[in-house]
User: Which sequence fits this backbone?
């Protein structure tokens, strides 16, 4: 994907993370690709794009190093906790390992005695995550529909997101068009990764780059 003449606009967060890992491994020949990614992120301007662009520039040596603590956290897992069900959502991040603990997993560990109650409230170990609900995810559907070129498809999708059960109906309608469904999953994942990155930066952390082969 990195060597393509044009990159899919809905994959810049994933591409940027990959480039950070390659840059951290001091691989040759990726500087131009990294600069290209920075330009794409700044032009697009989604939530989290600015933070990723700053991180890439720092890795290139062309910008200041952000005053953020690296944490080996999985952004997809963090996004799931941030944007999950408000009833069962939320959780915490283990600051020693970067592991994301959803609230149901915490409750299960407490029931089975696998959770150390002595450090449960240790602010140096845990970073609490409040569930922010589905508002951002709903906005993602609206933005995605606005970019659908086929007027008939866009109209059906617009109808689908009205009222309760919007997410389920939206995916049910999208399933009629597999290519469009795949595009939605990529778009949604990229948006969620960006929001998780922005949330983490606001808390003083940044995802630690994953080096190839590590």
Assistant:
């Amino acid at each position: 994907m990195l060597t393509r003449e044009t990159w899919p606009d809905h994959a810049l967060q994933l591409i940027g993370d990959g480039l950070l890992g390659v840059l951290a491994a001091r691989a040759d020949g990726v500087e131009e690709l990294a600069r290209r990614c920075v330009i794409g992120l700044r032009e697009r301007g989604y939530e989290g794009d600015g933070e990723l662009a700053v991180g890439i520039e720092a890795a290139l040596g062309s910008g200041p190093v952000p005053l953020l603590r690296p944490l080996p956290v999985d952004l997809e897992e963090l996004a799931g906790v941030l944007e999950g069900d408000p009833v069962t959502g939320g959780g915490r991040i283990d600051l020693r390992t970067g592991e994301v603990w959803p609230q149901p997993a915490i409750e299960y560990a407490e029931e089975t005695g696998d959770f150390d109650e002595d450090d449960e409230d240790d602010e140096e170990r845990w970073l609490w995550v409040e569930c922010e609900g589905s508002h951002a995810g709903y906005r993602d559907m609206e933005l995605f529909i606005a970019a659908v070129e086929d007027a008939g498809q866009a109209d059906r999708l617009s109808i689908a997101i009205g009222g309760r059960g919007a997410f389920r109906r939206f995916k049910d309608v999208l399933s009629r068009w597999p290519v469009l469904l795949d595009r939605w999953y990529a778009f949604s994942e990229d948006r969620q990764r960006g929001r998780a990155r922005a949330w983490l930066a606001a808390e003083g952390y940044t995802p630690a780059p994953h080096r190839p082969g590590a």
The chain has a mean pLDDT of 90. Residues 178-202 form the longest helix (25 residues). The CA atoms of residues 8 and 145 lie 17 Å apart. The longest strand covers residues 91-94.
